[in-house]
Amino acid sequence: MSSVTVRFATAADVKTILRFIKGLAEFEHEPDAVKATESDLLRDGFGPKPKFEVLIAEIEKESVGFALFFPTYSTWEGRPGLYLEDLFVVEHMRGQGIGLALLVRLAAIAVERDCARLELSVLHWNPAREFYHTLGLHHKDEWLPYRISGEALRALAARVTTS
User: What CATH number did the domain enclosing 21 receive?
Assistant: First the structure.
């Protein structure tokens, strides 16, 4: 196999990024859940104040995977961090070191930016969990993920507090 090249995405990669996001949604058994559009990705990733960054993995100039991440901040550490939102490798290329190449580059970026940590979430059934463990990542049993979205988020935002 040829070597893997990892590079930062540009606005010209938006169609590929959206294809990878949809591929990840299919892998996670949620093929109809993706609402993001190319316009959303252009605005939020490549506009004047980017909200995320993307690494693209290529083999012989073919895009075969991506990592979408954004900055976080640890108040306890007093330092920034990175959150890996999505990591995806096309199915026929899995097991060939592409995910590792993306994670190694992302770890290097975290170190370059003086980040205290790199974080991600993984579905409990995802076989990649074992891969993450071999790299030194571990899940935190004592922390439970919470989320609010949609109508519940709007209702909370509209709630009036009194002093």
Answer: 3.40.630.30
Domain that holds residue 87: 4-158
132 is catalytic: yes
Which strands form 4-8's sheet, in the order they lie side by side? Answer: 4-8, 53-59, 62-74, 79-89, 117-120
Residue 73 lies in a domain: yes
Predicted structure pTM score: 0.90
In the set 73, 83, 132, 146, the catalytic residue is 132
Residue 121 amino acid letter: S
Structural domains in the chain (count): 1
Q: What is the pLDDT of residue 161?
A: 72
In a domain, 163, yes or no: no
